[in-house]
Every structure is written in C-alpha cells, then in structure tokens.
Design goal:
single chain, alpha+beta, Spore Coat Polysaccharide Biosynthesis Protein SpsA, Chain A, Jelly Rolls, 6-stranded antiparallel sheet
Amino acid sequence: MSRSLYPKQLLPLAGASTMFQDTVRRVADQKRFAPPLVVCNDEHRFIIAEQLRQMGVAPFAIMLETEGRNTAPAAAAAALALDAGEAVMLVLPSDPVIADEKAFLAAVERGAAAARRGALVTFGITPDAPETGYGYIEKGAALNGVPGSHRVERFVEKPSRAKAEEYLKSGDYLWNSGIFMFRADGYLAELAAVHPEIVAACRKAVNQAQRDAIFIKLDAAAFAGATAKSIDYAVMEHTRNAAVVPVDMGWNDVGSWSALWSIGAKDKGRNVVLGDVIVDDSENCYIRSEDRLIAAVGLRDTVIVETDDAVLVAAKDKAQEVKAVVEQLKAKGRTEHHNHSVVHRPWGTYQTIDLGTGYQVKRITVKPGAKLSLQKHAKRAEHWVVVNGTAKITRNDETFELKRDGSTYIPLGAVHRLENVGKDLLELIEVQSGDYLGEDDIVRLEDTYGRVKA
C-alpha cells in the first residue's frame, strides 16, 4: 500500500485518518503550539496540502525537498526558515502510532522545560519487549531542575536478541523514538560545530528558495550539497547537552504489517480483519481488503493485503522482508512500487481502468473549483464523457460546458483545458488514442499550481 508517490504516512493504516493527519492533530492546540511547518518531498506537496485542508489546519508553510537528505538537514532548513531564535522546536516524524496522547503531551511539556535550559532532547520509549528492530538510548543521571528528564549516557545501535533482553531487564534503556525537541538556535549551533557544511548548504537553500503561497521550495542544487545525516548521527551522538525524556505512550513506528497486527482490534481467532473479508478456521492473521472479497481458510500467522493492482501474501514473521519484493519490482521495470493505480494531482485524481495497444481508458475526478493546466499533446487524442458534475471545456478558441452524459473530442495537438465549475465532484471517463500514451506527452502552457515557469 505504501508507494514512493504515496508513502505510508499519507495512508489511513491505523485508523480513519492518515498517520500524517494524526501527527498534526496531536499538536493542533493553538494555545500550546504554533502552526506546523511541514517538510516533505516535492512530489507529495499537493497531497499534504489537501490533507491539511481536510483537517482545517493552516500551516506556517510546507517546505519542499526535491531530494531527501535525512533529518539533520531537514530540521536545519526548518529552523532557518522559521528564524525562531530561542523558540523551542518539536521535531516529529509523521508515521508512528501514539495511543496515549495525554502521555505524549505531558512528555512534551517536560521536554520543553529541558530544551529551554539548553538541552537537546530526545524522547525514549519505555520498552515492553526485547525488540531488536529499534535503536536504544541508555539514560544517565537525572537532569537537575527538570523532573522526568535524564542525561543521555549513550546511543546504542539495533542490538542482538541477547543484548535486547539484557537492556529490558536493566531498566536503564529506552527505545529511540526519533522525536526531538530543542531551541532552534541551539540546534543550529551544535550542528554547525560538527557539520558546518550542512548548515551552510541549508542556509543557501532557504535563502534561494522559491516561495509560492504556503510552499517553500528549497533550492535544489544548494540543498543537495547538505550531507545526508540523521539528527542522531549528526548532532545527538556528539553534543554534551543531550537529554532524554522517558515516556510510555503506546508508541509504535509501524514498520511492518505484523506491527499493525499487534495494535489492531482482533476477533476471537486473534485475527485483524479489515474490509470485505471472510475468515474460517484461521488464527493470528492480518487480512486487509481494499477492493475485492478475500476468503481465508485454515491460515495461521499470515498477512494478506489486497489492493486493486496487487496482492501481498506473507508469513507474518517475514513481513518486514517485503523490501526484497520491491527490489524485484524495480529490477523488472514495473511501476507498482512507485504509485497506486489512483494517481493524485493538485486538481483531483486519475485512474487507468483499461490499457491496450494504441488506447488507454482513465477515470478522472476534478475537485470543485479546480482546473487542469492549459495543455496540448503531440502524440494522442482524447475523448471525454462526463458522468457526474459540470465541466467547463476549453478547446483551442472555443469554451463550452458539459453536464452528465455530455461528451467531446480533443484532437491531437489541440490546446485544451478541463475545469470543474460546479459544486459537486466532476467525474468523467477519458479515452486516449495514439501511438504513445505516456504522462510525459503533456506540454503545459499555463498552470494554476506553479508547474509552468513564467
């Protein structure tokens, strides 16, 4: 379900809201938190903006990376863009599940108190099992004047099973959550002391960024010059001011389907079942249907996940090895690892529902008030049939409206645009015909969403 163009944090994997939306909602109290600054890949910007709009959240900005450089440069660019000085930054990954949000907020209060005193704070999860898939933090002496906070003795890489059991028994070790809190100026100073090239590259990327409404697009060449490092490796393992706040808040980083099974609601056979599923004589399974009926009989400890373009079947204890399947998809030149059959655009979505030699059929939806770019194609013609809503069509020099059951033809090379001028979702079927039907056969002449340079 997680694809490069639509990763797991943008999916509703653990509830009705997406994991990104859950993260934003945890810090939505305007009496306690400033509006969020979201750092994301440029390809995800319109999905992020839409999910924030659905929540009614106005962000400080959405900062766009054309190339991921890990968390240390991302946090540095955010600190520079915020120009926050002594203000405290809370740095949150957008993909963990946190079941006890009261405990989370209480830990944030403790972390803020330590951060204001100059500490660079990380949050350590109280372990309940000898987990070998997480990094650990050994907590040291209590931090003077900040109850519930400790100095960091050391960071530990993912341990062996024997070591993990030893850590759990000692009570001095915590799972590394990847959540941080520090003064913006303090973080930049610590980072500059160890990696001045990262701060310099981020400063240049922010100073030369393109700003468009809520979007801050970092200068690609400058940001690429920042060494790809995590906050842990770049700063926390070097600073003398590292502190940790232990917290038990029902945290899970949802790194695999078996992790979702562990936190999901279970039936009498301890199966987690979602969607159109029939289960008989099966135990300890995770079965999720997105599109079609799944019938499971006589299974034990199995993961089955179905979408409209792929089905995964795996032993639950091998669920993390799905990465090997992704590598095979890449090697074979397939696209399932890259995007879903439904592709999201700033104006709506499109889905290929049939494809053959010389033709392609798509289902297109356009949000109320949205419009596609003014464009033309060099290698294909298009037929449009409206099945719901009201469409405004531009075709060369003419403009007209089409309602349900109306249709029109866009000849090869015609300058055209599609716009939803109604209050309802516009839905239409598009039949493309031509020698080449790739998405790169689009020449944009004008665009509302900044995809055409002036």
